[in-house]
Amino acid sequence: MTKPMTTAPGGAIELTTMHLTPGCTLEDFRNANRPIDTWIVKQPGFVSRTLAHDGDGVVIDIVTWTHEAAGEASAKALMQVFADSPIHDIIAQRTVFWTVAPIVQTTPA
Q1: What are the backbone angles phi and psi of residue 4, rounded to the nearest 5°?
Q2: What is the pLDDT of residue 2?
Q3: Tell me, what's the pLDDT at 52?
């Protein structure tokens, strides 16, 4: 039996996709993200963060927030707090796609 789709009670997804700079590895990316991971879990409205890497070299970063404004505020603060982070050299900046959107549906397991 298929479970019905449900309307989510709220929350937001922050989605970022990117490629790494040639010569940089996923391990370089993950190591440079450690300070960000430590910082982001302390941000108001943070729920979770998931990183994925597909076979075509795209890194996918998904952060779940309690509400859209929390994700937008965190992204703005992150760019200031980590302005000099080595992560910026590891990411091919012209390949970055970023958005925050409210969750409109959740389908339970």
Answers
A1: -75, 150
A2: 58
A3: 96
